[in-house]
């Protein structure tokens, strides 16, 4: 009890002496307990960083429309994805793009917790949470994992079982799995590549080391960003070829 009190007091003193600054504009932050991202962004910037993913959108790939009802987009009508559906927490716009850049490339890992809470909320909003057996974060190749020091997709979901238990008072009906999908070929960054180049870049990039384990199971892939969908689609194809019953994707931000 005393240790907790000392820790809480110390945290309060640090907050007064060294208040957090907004990652967007650099101004000091007034935190809001109702919004986890208020630890990272001021009230004004939150209005920009939180373009929440919502209707209307393509029920397959999650491409958002400005108006009208939900309907299949032109790309999905022309070439259906391997995945059944894609949903997101945010629309990938300027400030969320900056925040993700800080998270991935500058190791601003304090963003992981608020990001995961928003992603969990999107999971509860857009999916039947009892409809999956496994949640699989998109893996990094071992060379990139060593260089970066962490897998951002895993950090976004590692506490999902606890969040589910806290919200519903029972164990999650799925588990987080990092064994059934591996990145077996090092690829160049997808940034700046067009759709065809992205697809070619991911040819034979993934493998399923334990096909027996995923037979007949519904899998939810998790990644940080979905742009053309080449990464998630390649991973989903690998899992479907190995015997998965179905694959969907949940991402933090949808371009």
From TrEMBL:
InterPro entries: ComF/GntX_DNA_util-trans, PRTase-like, PRTase_dom. Coiled coil: none annotated. Keywords: Glycosyltransferase, Transferase. GO terms for molecular function: glycosyltransferase activity. Belongs to the ComF/GntX family. This is Putative amidophosphoribosyltransferase. It comes from Desulfobacter postgatei 2ac9. The lineage of its organism: Bacteria, Pseudomonadati, Thermodesulfobacteriota, Desulfobacteria, Desulfobacterales.
């Amino acid at each position: 009890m005393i240790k907790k009190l000392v820790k809480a007091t110390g945290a309060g003193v640090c907050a007064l002496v060294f208040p957090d600054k907004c990652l967007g504009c650099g101004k000091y932050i007034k935190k809001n307990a109702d919004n986890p991202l208020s630890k990272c962004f001021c009230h004004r910037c939150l209005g920009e960083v939180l373009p929440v993913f919502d209707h209307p959108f393509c029920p397959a790939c999650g491409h958002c429309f400005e108006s009208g009802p939900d309907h299949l987009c032109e790309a999905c009508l022309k070439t259906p994805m391997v995945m059944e559906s894609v949903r997101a927490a945010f629309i990938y716009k300027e400030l969320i793009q900056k925040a993700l850049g800080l998270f991935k490339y500058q190791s601003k890992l304090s963003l992981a917790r608020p990001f995961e809470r928003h992603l969990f909320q999107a999971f509860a909003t857009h999916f039947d949470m009892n409809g999956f057996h496994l949640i699989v974060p998109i893996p990094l190749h071992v060379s990139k994992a060593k260089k970066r020091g962490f897998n951002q997709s895993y950090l976004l979901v590692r506490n999902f079982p606890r969040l589910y238990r806290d919200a519903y008072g029972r164990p999650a009906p799925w588990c987080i799995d990092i064994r059934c999908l591996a990145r077996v070929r090092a690829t160049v960054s997808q940034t700046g590549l067009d759709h065809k180049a992205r697809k070619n870049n991911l040819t034979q990039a993934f493998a399923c080391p334990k096909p027996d384990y995923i037979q007949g199971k519904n899998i939810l892939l998790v990644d940080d960003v979905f742009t053309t969908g080449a990464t998630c689609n390649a991973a989903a194809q690998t899992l479907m070829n190995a015997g998965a019953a179905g694959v969907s994707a949940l991402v933090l931000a949808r371009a």
